[in-house]
Amino acid sequence: MIDEQQIQQAAAYVKAAQLVVVLTGAGVSKESGVPTFRDALDGLWAQYDPQQLATPQAFRRNPKLVWDWYEHRRKQLSAVAPNAGHIAIAELEQFVPQVVVVTQNIDGLHQRAGSTDVILLHGDIQHHRCFAGCQGNPTYIDIDAFAWDRDDGPPPCPHCGAWVRPDVVWFGETLPLGAFARAEDLCRKAQVMLVVGTSGEVQPAASLPAFARRHGAHIIEVNPNVSAITRHARVFLQGPSGEVLPRLAAAARQAS
Ligand code: BV8
User: Fold this and answer.
1) Which fold has domain 35-79+125-168?
2) Is 36 in the pocket of ligand 1 (CB under 6 A)?
């Protein structure tokens, strides 16, 4: 159980900040019913390791398998909603001069919760692009704009016939141009970085908390478990983000 004194300590840092960067991982969406990467994948997908599926090599080897995994996850997302943690992060914008969410998640829940400045480090599962980048990288493709056999794996790019792929960053792929650079630039300036629901295992996203701390930011972590980030945290609020973040936002609002 998190004691109120820790909440008040974290709230004081947030209340005094001009810029709060919020780095999130799959854990912030757990209470919306979205499985995290650490969770065993459900049903058919339990036999696969996401790190083996989320790669360009896996897509080249078996485009239908990888495509169907993302379609399965997209369909899961159509039935979920932002949880109290996403909403509390969005509410910070009401009394912190600048709040930027830097997310590793591809589920779009921060945007649906009302956060207005969200950097998508690893892309967006609802968007698609040509695997060959035939009209320039990225060549976005609207998969609802043309007819194709949805049981047959990925559609062919209407421009060049190459596979269409999810607009997400796979292991071994570089992050979207500018996204990581802007995230780093914000970490140089932030007074507070709130790190929510990430194991801190995947680079280069996981390097941001230590980078922000080196530039003077107070690191506040929200996670029910110790993570690779915890050693950098000035305040570790050990609990589920759906419970902790509303308490933190309420305390920071009162303090401001
Ligand atoms: C890169 C999108 C430069 C897709 C994801 C060899 C070759 C190439 C690169 C590498 C290599 N070896 C290592 C690397 C680097 C690699 C990497 O870091 N590997 C790891 C495994 C060591 N990184 C990359 O490849 C990146 N690109 O480096 O480019 C480059 C390019 C070419 C060659 C060399 C270098 C790209 C990485 C992006 C991969 N894409 N996602 C998709 O989603 O399908 S990563 C994916 O996994 C997520 O986006 C996220 O980043 C990561 C999962 O992490 P988390 O979000 O933290 O989730 P996790 O399940 O791990 O943890 C959940 C946490 O929530 C837990 O701590 C839990 O306690 C907590 N929790 C649970 N319940 C709650 C909660 N918290 C709060 N409330 C709760 N209720």
Assistant:
1) SIR2/SIRT2 'Small Domain' (3.30.1600)
2) yes
